[in-house]
Amino acid sequence: MSAYLRLLNSLRNQELVHKRFHEFAHQANKSLIDYLFPPVCLNCLTSLEVPHKVCPDCWQNIDFLIAPLCEVKGTPFPFDLEPGTISATALKNPPHYDKARGVATYEGTMKELIHKLKYNDRHELLNLLVAWMKTAGIELIQQSDLIIPIPLYKSRQWERRFNQSALLAKRLSEQSNIPYECSILLRKKKTRSQVGLTSKERYQNLKNAFVIEETKKNKLEGKSILVIDDVITTGATINSAAIALKKSGAKSVNILSLAIVTNSNNQFI
Ligand SMILES: [Zn+2]
Questions:
Q1: Pick from 2, 85, 217, 233: CA 20 to 30 A from residue 42's CA?
Q2: Number of domains in the chain
Q3: Confidence category of residue 269, pLDDT binned at 50, 70, 90
């Protein structure tokens, strides 16, 4: 019996040593990674205690879009209004999408982070940006059947090598278990820059800019679609995408973006 107990004790000790070794190895590995790649602010590279975050200064320089917001366009109201209030511009020209939401206004740190993602291939920003999108778009995500990105023109994607909206959409799909499709909504024609155009010209410029892949139309039928865009500038692009998706049978089209360009009246379009 005592031999048996001794054996049991020895096995327990081995197990304990094994466990301790693993903890030690994990800690040593973590310390080595921290030593080689100390955590820094994802925007300004200031040292931080924890990785994958932005520093307090950069954080303060983000104008997060929080209530009160226009129920349709997600743009902020300067004063407190009843939840569900719709802005004057959305009432005057109702968009074809159902609701749009953005994480922040297109300024300060958010603008810098989007530029880093788009032009400097900083894909390690994705987790933080998608976490913010999940908070800003929680209501829209919960009611979605399919996540699709705003596509780039083939020539532009070739120049940049990737579509930043597709990266965001794919990561969001993985984290929310909602299917992702990047080949349903396609760009039909190369449109000229929207800069300096009136809202009517912008509409004409982007009219019929998108087509739906014929063989995949059935995936839209009666479904709630969540479209991911990096920046909502004038709203003409997302409006045009919503027209194409709804024409092909989508029940609802909501838009989730990282940033919204707002003018002095906090309105786009
Ligand atoms: Zn910083």
A1: 233
A2: 1
A3: very low
Q: What is the CATH number of the domain that holds 73?
A: 3.40.50
In a domain, 212, yes or no: yes
Say how far apart CA 97 and CA 128 lie, in whole Å.
Answer: 26
pTM: 0.83
Are 234 and 100 a contacting pair, CB within 8 Å?
no
Angle at 115 between CA 114 and CA 116, to 5 degrees: 90
What would the pLDDT profile of 69-125 be if each residue is shown by its tens digit?
Answer: 999 999 998 887 788 899 998 999 999 999 999 999 999 999 999 999 998 889 999
Averaged pLDDT for residues 6-32: 71
Q: Please tell me the distance between residue 53's alpha carbon and the centre of ligand 1 in angstroms.
A: 9
Domain of 201 in residue numbering reads as 56-260
- Residue 241 located in a structural domain: yes
Going from the Cα of 61 to the center of ligand 1, the distance in angstroms, rounded, reads 9
CA 48 / ligand 1 centre spacing (Å): 9
252-260 and 210-212 strand pairing: unpaired
Compute, in angstroms, the gap from residue 236 CA to the centroid of ligand 1.
33
Q: Is residue 41 part of a domain?
A: no
DSSP state of 70: -
Give the Å distance between the CA of 55 and the centre of ligand 1.
4
State in Å: Cα 56 to ligand 1 middle. Answer: 7
The answer as to whether 243 is a domain residue is yes
